[in-house]
Amino acid sequence: MRPYTRLTLKQRYYIYLWHSEQKLGYREIALRLGRAHMTIYNELKNNRRRPDLPIDKSPYDPEYADWAAAERRSEKIRGRLLVDGRVLAKVKKAIEERHWSIPMIAHGMSRTPCEATLYKYQRLGITALAGYQKQKRRKPAVSIAKMMAGNRQLEVVKEHSIEKRPNEINIRRRHGHWEMDCIDSPKGIASSLLVFVERKSRYTEIIKITSKRSDQMLKGIKQFLTLQEGNVKSITTDRGHEFTNFDVVSYLTSQGIDIYYAHAYSPSEKGTIERINRDIRRYCPKKASLAPLTPAFLQQVKEAINDYPREVLHWASANRAFTRWQRKRPSMTKIGVQYVERA
């Protein structure tokens, strides 16, 4: 296949002379120029001011044809705009006034180009996107103190890894095994919600704490164990510093409660509580502070969530499943730190 070379202005003058004045056919002109006859046909048909009109009404002009060909090549290099000015004005308004990102504009506005096209227009310097700056999110560097704290906690996490959790807990065969997590306020506000979910019945307890310091965590855990006295055999949680500190681990161990830590970046290993947290967020949105929440309000939230009919419980509520277990289980009494059945 021979390489293609563009028609020059001189060759276009020859085409005009031979076709318009000497009335030669396409094939004869093509033979004289060493071109394909379709090249001559397309040049005379399309490279005119009005290609929609017959050639006698809109004659071929070699100078205009050469300019039009150069303009088409320039459009290919800089990228042809496929949208009108009104759409670009809408895009500009969304960027400057509403602070929308390009993905938000592409998916959230009608009759706008796709994401890739908008990024292309930005690279080409289109005015509507000249003020757009892609947000860069960078994780702050981890401090040495935090790294050392992680190393100290590593042994505790290994000792209580979820890999050591018995299979009967994994398959939810028995009641009394819970998951624990924290729901935090927006950045700068210390108040949090300490959430506990019983794995088999999905029964939920919500306790407000003023911060995630060890003393407040212990206070919340003690309140939970008072509410569920004799009903807690193990707790599964994540590797957050509030759960791996020595005070929390030693207290739970002293109460005869096993604690298990999920693997890092594995929320599915405590998926029950992650699902319940979504339900709680319906009443406590992410951007809202948790500090003003009263115990009465949290009690209402707990009752509402525990009354949800759940498909996993065959459309029974967690409250009903938990109450049924309480009625069936033998009465318990506390001796030291162990719970044993009464004689």
Automatic annotation (TrEMBL):
Classification via SUPFAM superfamilies: Ribonuclease H-like
Listed GO CC annotations: cytosol
Residues annotated as domain Integrase catalytic: 162-329
PROSITE patterns, per database record: INTEGRASE (PS50994)
A biological-process GO annotation: DNA integration
Keyword Transport: no
Molecular function GO labels: nucleic acid binding; transposase activity
Keywords: DNA recombination
Domain of life: Bacteria
Protein name: Transposase, IS30 family
